[in-house]
Amino acid sequence: MLWRRPPRPFLTIVVIGALYGVFLAAGHQVFWDSSLGMDAPGLAGLEPGAREALLRGAAVMSSLVTGTMVGVIAGGVAVLLGRVLPAPARRGDQVDGSRPPA
Questions:
Q1: How far is the C-alpha of 16 from the C-alpha of 67, rounded, in Å?
Q2: Mind telling me which residue stretches traverse the membrane in this protein (predicted)?
Q3: How much is the pLDDT for 88?
Q4: Which residue of 28, 41, 54, 69 sits 20 to 30 Å from the alpha carbon of 5, by its own alpha carbon?
């Protein structure tokens, strides 16, 4: 973000965070059986199918919220750093900002 300086750094990083949440949710679903399976404690009153659906849905929502919040926090940091740190010099620019003679 600090090198490319997109026009909307906050929105850009929030979208990246949301995509991170999608991949996090997919990872939770892929590895569900190997890590938790049907041995979820505390939901003994529900049928196994309903229990699994409830827990999987909660895991997806939690992943999406977590990813988006990571994006919000990282986007805020990027905006603050973008205001504090100077933009990098571009190729061909001189220190004073003028272009070299052609």
A1: 8
A2: 12-32, 58-81
A3: 78
A4: 69
